[in-house]
Write a structure and sequence with these properties.
The protein is mostly beta strands. It has a domain at 33-96: Beta Barrel (OB fold (Dihydrolipoamide Acetyltransferase, E2P)), CATH 2.40.50. The protein has one helix at 64-68, and strands at residues 33-43, 47-52, 57-62, 78-83, 90-96. A five-stranded mixed β-barrel has the order 1-2-3-5-4. It is elongated. The termini are far apart. It is found in: Cytoplasm.
């Protein structure tokens, strides 16, 4: 009877239980500001200059889902933009309205 060259393992230790994180003070994620806009200019790297309904202009990029499903965005399209409450000059295009 041949023995393998690997050392024999001892009894298995119980897996560590996960720490309880229910009572820790974790900062909540800020909600994005959602607005409707129109694309005014296409820029490189799937970036666009968009104009909000209130007249403000900002730079927005196509969301990953928009790129994944090859949704084309061209100047003149009506879109829905998510803005961070911390930086209202940059946005993410999350939906293109059908005209």
């Amino acid at each position: 009877m041949a023995r393998s060259s690997t050392p024999r393992r001892g009894p298995r230790r119980p897996a560590r239980s996960r720490r309880d994180t229910s009572n820790t003070a974790e900062p909540t994620k800020e909600e994005a500001v959602v607005m409707d806009a129109a694309v005014t200019q296409a820029l490189p790297n799937a970036m666009f200059e968009v104009e909000l309904e209130n007249g403000h202009k900002l730079i927005a990029y196509a969301a990953g889902r928009m790129r994944r499903y090859f949704i084309r965005i061209t100047p003149g399209d009506r879109i829905r933009v998510e803005l961070s409450p911390y930086d209202l000059t940059r946005g993410r295009i999350v939906y293109r309205y059908r005209d």
